[in-house]
Design brief:
This protein has a single domain, classed as Sandwich (Jelly Rolls), CATH 2.60.120. It is 11% helix and 36% strand. It has two helices and seven strands. The strands form two sheets. A five-stranded mixed sheet has the order 3-4-7-5-6, covered by helices on one side. Strands 1-2 form a two-stranded antiparallel ribbon. A hairpin with a 2-residue loop joins strand 1 and strand 2. It is globular, with a radius of gyration of 13 Å.
């Protein structure tokens, strides 16, 4: 999936989650799991949580054109993480060695 952010593009490998997967997300997985794509038919504005996610991850909310609406570093066991804008897709990117380039792209090199 190509994501556009600040007039730049980055290719992020993702696994599209099923309807059931939208409820589970990264819960109970290891930090070395795949990046997850939550794809909605219409724009939504919903909160997420990180209960039972035992590692930090990057949440990236994008619109229907794959343009970043917002991103946030999410720590484990947070009850409510709510974006300010509506979004069409959410990508959850675990902090792991495979995702260092993606994390640096958004957060900045060496900032995490």
């Amino acid at each position: 999936m190509i994501i556009k952010y600040k007039n730049k593009k980055i290719d992020v490998r993702v696994k599209r989650v099923s309807s059931f997967g939208k409820f589970i997300g990264l819960m109970f997985k290891s930090k070395n799991t795949e990046n997850l794509l939550f794809d909605f038919e219409n724009d939504v504005k919903m909160a997420i949580h990180s209960y039972f996610v035992f590692f930090p991850f990057l949440a990236v909310w994008v619109n229907d054109k794959n343009e970043v609406q917002e991103w946030k570093v999410v720590e484990p066991f947070i009850s409510i993480i709510k974006p300010k804008k509506s979004f069409r897709k959410l990508v959850e990117i675990p902090f792991n060695s495979a995702n260092i380039g993606i994390i640096d792209f958004f957060v900045g090199k060496g900032k995490v």
